[in-house]
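Worked example 2:
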Amino acid sequence: MRRNDFESDICFFRKEVADTFQPDTMFFPVSDFVVEVLSSSTEKRDRGIKFVDYALNGVKEYWLVDADKKLVEQYVLDNENFVLAEKVQHATVRCKVLEGLEIPLDAIFNEEANELFQRGI
């Protein structure tokens, strides 16, 4: 079921899916993992129509990043609905769908911590 085509802030496709993309690909298959960064102009849509459509279309994991609250809401797909897996405000957010993807919250919300994280420090 594909009702809408959205441009997410971050999305991930498994390699076997991404390998099928061509330069003229107009519509991509459903992402495995999507991240949306909330703002006053996008929050209603990210929590509303995108939330529902991503679930109905089979996105396996959905993160809502709230920079004001320095919080990540992590949702996982259960049948055709997202279920809140965790609200991470301190520590590390661990992706349920992508094994090994772990990001300390400081690396998301603090530029210096992000640079250290990227260098593996």
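The first helix runs from residue 15 to 18. The mean pLDDT is 89.
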